């Protein structure tokens, strides 16, 4: 079992390196930022699961460690800070995000639709055009109360950083969403693991702020693991007035 203190220990001083690559929760200390729920989020449970079940133990301040902490702080900002000007992990003057070669999105687009909707494609299980920011986060948070993330390998260093990642949790709650056919989809919790991997090619500036993020992964991998043999899946057609916009 990994040493849990690694998730909470204060990082050692590192001249020239920003706090968001030294401390996975650095941006939660930005108390004057505009937070979605009026205050910074609490990642204690997720960090505990990460410490207990991660597969890699990166040396402090190694490139994989710096990349992992940068991305964790970026996710906090993208999910919880409502003003792009408060995002310290990105170069707000020149920032884009893209998935599987699709046209790049701006930070403002992600703020509008939400991080889940920015990375998921329409399918028989989910449609990002039918659930808003809050509804999408509620659907997946209910299903996966903790969804830990780690860097597996880093293939190249700054300014272009290519790396492979893993995102995992346990499906302890039922999933409820709306699919591309306008059907309400329910998948009963199976209590088993959800474990997905992918690759990112990112460009950073001299402050290690993200300028460009290109994500490559199978967006259906999570849903296949959720649905299993299909016995726990139900679909009910919604009336147009019932659909969440």
UniProtKB/TrEMBL annotation:
<dbReference type="InterPro" id="IPR053218">
    <property type="entry name" value="Pathogen-related_defense"/>
</dbReference>
<protein>
    <recommendedName>
        <fullName>Pathogen-related protein</fullName>
    </recommendedName>
</protein>
<dbReference type="InterPro" id="IPR032710">
    <property type="entry name" value="NTF2-like_dom_sf"/>
</dbReference>
């Amino acid at each position: 079992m990994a040493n849990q203190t690694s998730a909470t220990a204060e990082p050692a001083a590192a001249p020239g390196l920003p706090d968001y690559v030294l401390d996975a929760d650095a941006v939660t200390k930005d108390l004057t930022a505009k937070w979605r729920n009026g205050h910074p989020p609490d990642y204690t449970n997720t960090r505990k699961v990460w410490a207990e079940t991660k597969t890699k133990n990166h040396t402090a301040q190694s490139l994989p460690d710096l990349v992992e902490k940068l991305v964790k702080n970026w996710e906090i900002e993208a999910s919880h800070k409502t003003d792009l000007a408060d995002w310290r992990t990105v170069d707000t003057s020149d920032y884009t995000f893209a998935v599987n070669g699709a046209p790049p999105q701006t930070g403002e687009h992600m703020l509008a639709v939400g991080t889940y909707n920015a990375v998921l494609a329409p399918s028989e299980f989910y449609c990002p055009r039918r659930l808003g920011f809050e509804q999408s986060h509620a659907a997946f948070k209910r299903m996966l109360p903790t969804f830990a993330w780690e860097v597996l390998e880093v293939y190249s260093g700054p300014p272009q950083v290519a790396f492979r990642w893993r995102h995992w949790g346990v499906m302890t709650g039922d999933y409820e969403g709306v699919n591309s056919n306008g059907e309400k989809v329910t998948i009963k919790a199976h209590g088993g693991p959800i474990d997905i991997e992918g690759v990112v090619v990112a460009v950073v500036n001299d402050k290690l702020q993200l300028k460009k993020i290109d994500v490559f992964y199978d967006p259906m991998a999570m849903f296949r693991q959720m649905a299993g043999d299909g016995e726990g899946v139900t679909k009910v057609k919604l009336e147009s007035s019932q659909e969440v916009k």
